[in-house]
Amino acid sequence: MVWFDPKLAEPGSEEYKILSEIDPDNLPRHIAIIMDGNGRWAAKRGLPRIAGHRAGIEAVREVVEACARLKIEVLTLYAFSVENWRRPKDEINALWDLLTEYLAREERTLLENNILLRAIGRLEELPEKVKESIKETMRKTANNSGLKLLVALNYGGRAEIIDAAKKLCRLAREKNIDINEETFSSFLYTEGIPDPDLLIRTSGELRVSNFLLWQIAYTEFWITETLWPDFTKKELFRAIRDYQKRERRFGGLQP
User: Fold this and answer.
1) Which domain range does residue 234 map to?
2) Average pLDDT over residues 129-146
3) What is the DSSP letter of 229?
4) Domain-located, residue 230
5) Closest of 228, 237, 233 to residue 63, by C-alpha
6) What pLDDT does residue 225 have?
7) Confidence category of residue 94, pLDDT binned at 50, 70, 90
8) Would you place residue 50 in the very low, low, confident or very high pLDDT band (cuts 50, 70, 90)?
């Protein structure tokens, strides 16, 4: 008898084989993904960049659903960085349109799959229609108890650390508190969320791009040459299988 949801893979398929090799008792609690390569995917096909972003949404849908069925606790997607404002205005506006379209279209899926949506980043700087769309979806999914889907928007790891330090300094002036890793973490955007166990980066780039700088201190990395629109649940399963082969020591030694 298989341990996984039968909707995840057809018997005899490569996905089924990979899942059969995964230990259900050693799944990563938190998977973070740097979704990279939409523009290159479009350029290879002679299409505008926005076509790559639209194709990337299909990959988001497949990965989110797969993580929910695997009963992964947290999935964090790097959707828009503080540096992405440097892109052409038309592309940025199209990205916001795609995000609001995705939230409206996938609301039922989030609810049916018991997925809680949470956005992290400097959300106050987002366009008003985007903020309202995010707030509404977060409100509707707030009581869901399954996968926590974190979407990093207008996010930067350095910005997050600066924002946390400012909050901590204000509180430190008012109260006598002990500043340590635990208290500092409680002021991050990811308050209450376990650090990522596995970070996946698509398109083959070997950098973290200012993503979850504090949280990934002991995260396992998995890099694939696959461009994000071509990323499927099969690659997700491969990443988890590879993760389970790692020896995680967190700076110590195994007995």
Assistant:
1) 27-156+194-243
2) 97
3) G
4) yes
5) 233
6) 98
7) very high
8) very high
The distance of Cα 18 from the centroid of its chain, to the nearest Å, equals: 22
Distance in angstroms (rounded) separating the CA atoms of residues 81 and 122 = 10
Given 36, 144, 154, 197, the catalytic residue:
36
Whether 84 is a known active-site residue: answer yes
* Among 38, 84, 114, 163, the one annotated catalytic: 84
The count of domains in the chain is 1
Does residue 222 fall inside a structural domain? Answer: yes
The answer to whether residues 160 and 189 touch, using CB atoms and an 8 Å cutoff, is: yes
Does residue 129 contact residue 163 with C-beta atoms inside 8 Å?
A: no
Residue with tokens 């909050």: 167
Question: Which amino acid does the sequence have at 7?
Answer: K
The HSE-up count of residue 215 (CA atoms within 13 Å, CB side) is 28
> Is residue 223 in a domain?
yes
What is the per-residue pLDDT for 253? 62
Q: How confident is the model at residue 177 (pLDDT cuts 50, 70, 90)?
A: confident
Contact 70, 27 (CB under 8 A): yes
d(CA 188, CA 191): 5
pTM of the model: 0.95
Does residue 138 sit within a domain?
yes
Q: What is the CATH number of the domain that holds 65?
A: 3.40.1180.10
**Phi, psi for 39 (deg, rounded to 5):** -65, -45
Q: Is the pLDDT of residue 191 over 80?
A: yes
